[in-house]
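Handout, section B. The chain below has 629 residues.
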Amino acid sequence: MRSKIYSVFSIIIYCYDFVQTSDCDIKYDFKKKEEVKIADCKNKGLTFIPQDLPGDIEVLDMSFNRLQIIGNSAFVNYRDLKELYLSRNQLRYISNKSFQGLHKLTILDMSGNILNLSKVYSAELFHPIKNLTKLNIRRNMPQPIDFVTDYNYPDHAFGILMELSFLAIDMMPLPYFGSGFGQMTTLKELHFDSCYLVRLSNETFQRFYSSVEQLTIRNCRLHFVVTEYNALLPFPKLDVIDFSGTFMHLKHALQLIHPYRNANISTINFGHVSDVSIDRVDIPYVLTITVDIMKIMKTICVENLDLSQNGIVDYEPGSLFSFDHPECLQHISFKENRFLLASEKNLNDISHFFSRTVKLKSLDYSYNTVNYFKHNSVSSNSDLNCSFHSNVILPKSLEKIDVSYTVANTFPEIILIVPKNNSLTYLDVSYSRSNVAILILQIRLETFIADGIDYLFAWNQIQRSYYNTVKTIIWKNAELDNALRLFGNRFFRSTISVESIDISENGIWYIPDDLFKPMPNLTNLSLSKNSLQAIPVQLSNHAKVQKLDVRKNRLTSVSSVIRDWADKMEDLHGMTLHLTDNAFECNCDNIAFIMWIQTTKVNLDSRSYKCKLSNETVIDTLFCVQLFI
């Protein structure tokens, strides 16, 4: 009997020691110019709250663990905590007294768990932490079965959080928010996730206080969301409206903003609010924008506007590009619509629009189709048109243009002119098939992406980059093998400022000597998906390369020169080398390379690659080492 008692006692002591031990990292950071002590317990496989951490920690991060429950006074040893992160666990139960002692806590993140809104949030739960300013409990609720019954949110629990400025929570099909939510008079940001919304009615937000400035209701896609005209009326101060991915149709989304006529709003994101899955006779997915549809939107002084992926195929003159305050616009996206027709009046609208968007920084017109045919190619009344082409002058303020995957057939030819003294640093023309020309009068590009198009266009732009500003070039699937045969090592002569270049998928089978010599600042090079039989030895003359990608070529080995160079780069600043899916040989001549794979400190994408024996048998390099030792 005594031995049994001793065994049980020993187990209790062992378990106590186990729960008291953790593998957390204690570190310091500066927040608001003050040093903060942090316990980083992320992704440690923990099923408990560690009790052996320093008592003066101010931040505890328990994200990505395996917590299922939190018991009474679980954090009482850490009374200085200001931030607590419990996201991405398996939490399904929290005791009413779990947060006792945490009177200084201001941020609580319990997102990505299994905490049921109807069962977990009692009236007592938040009492010890009623000074919270940020609460994130989104992505907890599973998809409901019942879509026709009102869902009562536990306002008795949330009403005590009168200092809250940020709330992220899940959206149920027919939400009912009680009067307690009106007690949160300092709430500025309201975000809904795991969204199962069916109806956004005039009563949905009526009990919230009018202080909310940011509202996001994203990715409600299970049902068509029925909207009522005055649903946003309780929020007169909205500055950010983000309904992206919520299927309610663009026409209805634009009706919701009627309370903000002539208002100043920083962001309106109505990207992908229309979808073919909600195509109906009264609200067709294939949409022509009318003057009536835009009558409220055109009055708003908006900085960031996203109308992407909404099935727009055409627009009436005086609608889509007619704003009372175009000078407010900084970022605009029409991505993935289908502008099939543009009249001469539309073209004049666009020209007039760009002439007034003096602050516009980015324009995303990718994945569109444009057909423009002027009935009378000669116009004596327009300065914009002549018999050969029409000019559209873009604003000097533009920093980013994306016209990738755009198909345009126009007559006469349209020329987009980027004037001198412009701010353009980013241009993506990938896979565009167009006779719309882009004329950049003064090139200061930093990022240039020209995948899948005639390399001569991109090459000519780079040749004209006199200011040596280009740092990133992405030039995939552009038949550069032909260019290298034609121009040899002169092809990159104007790339002195380039730091990163991706010329994958170009059928390149040989690299001219000194091709990369004009790039002394090269740090990142991708040559993947080509036909190279060896890594160019000329790279050994480059001392700044930190990443080299040569996957999916025809390499049979990596030379000793390149291996030594890669080791040197690793010692200097770190080096990553990707070698997967090549034709490595496993024989005596190659054993030095095979051994190097196992011993080098270079960050390889694998330590075991496929290789072929002389009898054509495919094995891996790890097994090959054992064969030759």
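Note. The domain at 239-442 is CATH 3.80.10 (Leucine-rich repeat, LRR (right-handed beta-alpha superhelix)). Compare this with the example in section A.
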